[in-house]
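Form 12-C: Joint structure prediction
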Amino acid sequence: MAELNSRIPKGPLADKWTEYKAHTNLVNPANKRRLEIIVVGTGLAGASAAASLAELGFKVKNYCYQDSPRRAHSIAAQGGINAAKNYQNDGDSVYRLFYDTIKGGDYRAREANVYRLAEVSNNIIDQCVAQGVPFAREYGGLLDNRSFGGAQVSRTFYARGQTGQQLLLGAYSALSRQIKKGNVEMFTRHEMLDVVLVEGRARGIVVRNLVTGSIERHAAHAVVLATGGYGNVFFLSTNAMGSNATAVWKAHKRGAFFGNPCFTQIHPTCIPVHGDFQSKLTLMSESLRNDGRIWVPKKKEDAEKIRHGKLLPTQIAEEDRDYYLERRYPAFGNLVPRDVASRAAKERCDAGFGVGETGLAVYLDFSDAINRLGKSTIEARYGNLFQMYEKIVDENPYKTPMMIYPAVHYTMGGLWVDYELMTTVPGLFAIGEANFSDHGANRLGASALMQGLADGYFVLPYTIQNYLSDQIRVPKFSSDLPEFVKTENEARERLQKLMNVKGKQTVDSFHKRLGLIMWNNVGMGRNEEGLKKAITEIAELRKEFWLDVKIPGEANEINPELEKAGRVADFLELGELMARDALNRNESCGGHFREEFQTPEGEALRNDNEYMYAAAWEFTGENNEPKLNREVLDYEFVEVKQRNYK
Amino acid sequence: MAFKYSSVTKKVVMALAGLFLITFLIVHLSINLLLLFDDSRELFNLAAHFMATNPVIQVFQIVLFGGFILHILVGLILQIQNWMARPTRYKVEGYSHTSFFSKFMIHTGGVILAFLVIHLINFFFKAKFGEMPEVMINGELYEDMGILVIEKFRELPVVVMYVVWLLFLGFHLDHAFHSALQSLGLNHSKYTPAAFGISRALAILIAGGFILIPVVIFIAQ
Amino acid sequence: MNLTLKIWRQKNATSKGKFVTYKVSDISSNSSFLEMMDVLNESLVLKGDDPVAFDHDCREGICGACSMYINGRPHGPDKAVTTCQLHMRRFNDGDTIVIEPWRARPFPVLKDLIVDRSAFDKIIQAGGYVSVNTGGVPDANAIPISKVNADLSMDAAACIGCGACVAACKNASAMLFVSAKVSQFALLPQGRTEAAERVQAMVAEMDNQGFGNCTNTGACEAECPKEISISNIARMNREFLSARICAPKVKEGSGGGI
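Section 2 - Result
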């Protein structure tokens, strides 16, 4: 199979991208019109890529499973988007954003990619403002910034608590313009089932029309996957209900290596779980940590009383509160990176200081901020988040502290891609959260939006041309080629197989069981024993699923249960790979915390000598163990240190 | 055909015609109120004569009819389109918080139109084409429109009918002035709340003023 | 809590639908409305029945997918929430809840409670954007924008495109949706450049899709989960009028559309 070649341009870090752009092959306008590109997904990465490629003149086909491209889950991002504009004159620079991202990712990301990301971050803000994205502004009319975890500068641009929505609607509007012009053909309510390879190159996809249930074949010169992350492996996550890994998993099984599958981000500020019926977790933006202070009771007996409703948090005296983040990390305080904050919350709760009915919650308290800044300022900053909290929990966060607990939020892992964002399958690209990305082992807040848009607007439109430049003589593909027919039949048989099980248990019940295995063993804290157990349990669950899943209805109609079943079937395979990757990585780094590997103070303990690489897993056939390939990370320009937020 | 104009244009036409009709109602009411302040009916008859003979007013009369017809026709077209926009109705509906009368403009409008025909037969066509009693004012003969009105309003059924009709006019007017401004795009965060007040005040004053006339005449007989 | 649900069931776009009554029991008052529906569906699947199909995705009130007309109101009885944010504590034990799909000619029912809202996408495609290509744009801080206008623009931009305004309007009018997008851009210098073309193109497409006309009843504003104000509709009317009256005549096709 393919060799791992990250294709990083030579030269000094700051010049790599400029040099690359200056020398890469381009496609001339007349040829662009003849080349077709499939983009799967319409989130920040997908919509921005589809629009930008269409603007360049390529013929684009764009797909989403939702009823409209505007509903992709990027829309739910709240806090903001980072850029190295240094508008606040607080010492920010491209290098500092690059450095913070590398450090935040615990030195498990590729230097060249991260530098490029920091470099184009400024273009993104310019682009979005030109599109009419209503970012927050100061009274002087200039853009406002807020600070975010893992950084000592204020570089986060935001649109209230709806930044993701506004950026996505910006990309969606650009996409809509190209749809109107006929440069993008849009397929909504279509779910990708498989990728089609012709002579080793990605040449199309097989999709299911979710309204009619029909299986369709679509051909193109290149395929771009922008299908997001796989956090829903855990069942409960902040992802949308429909977010799934089918596209990337099928690509993996067709030869694309899967990078760092175990790198999962557990977000520290989510509304705690409250019942078995719960279908998803709701995030409270990390921006809340700017003004909120996180604490638990100092005394176990106080925590106990609170759990039983005998004591209110407001009755606990200041000296009896443990502001554990401020205590442990005086330099960054409540603004430590997400993985650190999540683990600290888990540590306190495991030690018996947790609050809430379940004891799995900590307080996020705004009383100091309200006293200092006034209720109206807090309301202006976080009003909609407070409202959202009150709707769900039925408590007023202006009066009583919020309860929060970590939840699965983002997956740093994904399809392994080279500097050009191409997977190990020629012609198959992965962008946004779908690739193994620039975040290393942990993503900083407000960087996902930055990466999605960077890939879609400013990176892929250049790099894909380098691939397409030698494809200009390749005529348009017919989707009747035998490779297409074969892949379609395989997809159809798989669906039929699912329908034919006619077992006794619902899809959701399997998904919940998988989620529990994952959360308990491949979640915030991992160890060898748990991971081995998870691998066995997942394999058993997978077997049971294929023997006993119950799907009502028919395959040729709107059938949400069938849709879910296909996704869960893939999660059941991906979950195992995540556990294997976590088991392989005998170190703690970023979001991957192996309990066996920690410092005496309980911080993550990396093993740079053995594990300073990106794991790229290769599919070797059903029921075969996957093969590990290593992309050794070479830190030429930054000094690798232990992360220190103290 | 009116269908080809955009929905916003049609709403603008509705608004302009409506505002024009409100102006007409205010003029009409001011003249009618003269009956209550002058037992000799002289002022009212002079005003009625002026309205019936002045060439400018005659031109405006045509415009007024045009305004009515436009308001009714465009209103009907809009309503038909609105019905077509929801071919299947809800089983349970109408629980959203809205101003009550705004939802029944076509209904109140229909009632007003029906009575309007009777009203025109009672007074307008009689004055224009029928035999009218005459009265001497300042040595000249004038048609005695006033006595026609007073005699009509001495019959209880007529008074009841008019009161009911005018109540419907009031309901219709409640969602008129501010709605017209909204359709014309004349809104402002400072002044729009006042427009709601003015709208309600106009509804009460115009409908109330008109109702006063038959009621006072009936009681005073 | 125990509830009686009367739900619109319709097999597909062409079949005739009907209301079917279901009982659900032991629903936690802390669960969301959609989680209550999940419980119902789980029980239907176990019985071998077809579960109730409904659109939903983010379940945090921002994607705009969920769309149920509950007891005579889109997104149910609470103000400023989507169906997924509605919680069962809002209902009483023993209540009967009637659940219908959005009803409007441009929103045909596809199955049960799922409707096709692509008419909204068509309206955005007609002009709901600023015509700039990627790259080559000025610095983000090159044009100062008054905070007041930026905030008003953001108020309008908060629209999630769920269609509750259409569902609530007695005329099935889409004016609130369209005006929100028109307003967002009309209030920003970036959007002013093609404001006249935009408002005309979007209104034309709105009419073309077969939505009803606005009669200023305000039901849309009352039901909008993002509390978008009908002052946006007035702004759109104003923009439209001034575009019609003041904008120069442009030959078809000379500008290539916007």
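Section 3 - Comments
Chain B is about 75% helix and 5% strand. Chain B touches chain C at residues 6-12, 78, 81-82, 84-99, 102-103, 105, 175, 178-179, 181-187, 189, 192 (CB under 8 Å).
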